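cron nightly-structures :: item 1 of 1
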Amino acid sequence: MNKTELFARVDAQRDSLADIAHKLWDYAEVAFQEVNSSALLRTYMEGLGFKIHEVPNLPTAFIAEYGSGYPVIGLLGEYDALPGLSQKAQTTQEPVTEGGSGHGCAHNLLATGCAGAAIALKDLIDADQIKGTIRYYGCPAEEQLVGKPLMAKEGVFDDLDIVLSWHPANNNEVVPVSYTHLTLPTIRLV
């Protein structure tokens, strides 16, 4: 397996992934209301052979899993929007709906990019080039910083060997961080 081959596997899904990214942009659903966004991603991943698992107490969270055994590799997809950031897909500021929600941090691309990576890794499992389990985590309410902690409270990350994500920024860098020493606080939804 080389980088060119891996990129080609993602590029094979280009049209579908672009369509998903655009739909997530249009849905622009805020924390814990990502019903359409979650359903779209679940349906797409399930259609490609991923088994879908629900996350207790979080209806817009899910896990799409493929493969078996170790290593267990997680990819974090975020798809929630922010209130008041409605924006047409253009470079000048113009809301779709005045006061509506929108993707200020490009979570429509975060969700889609990690889905594309999970699909490419699935293809490598199918080609017997790698072994293990791939999990795409549909993470709601990340703009409120509560989605992943609530998922962790449910134990969905407990058996991971590694988890990967990305976030748009004005520079390219790898930020190697380990949170194994932290204790998660108790979070209550009001």
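cron nightly-structures :: done
The chain has a mean pLDDT of 88.
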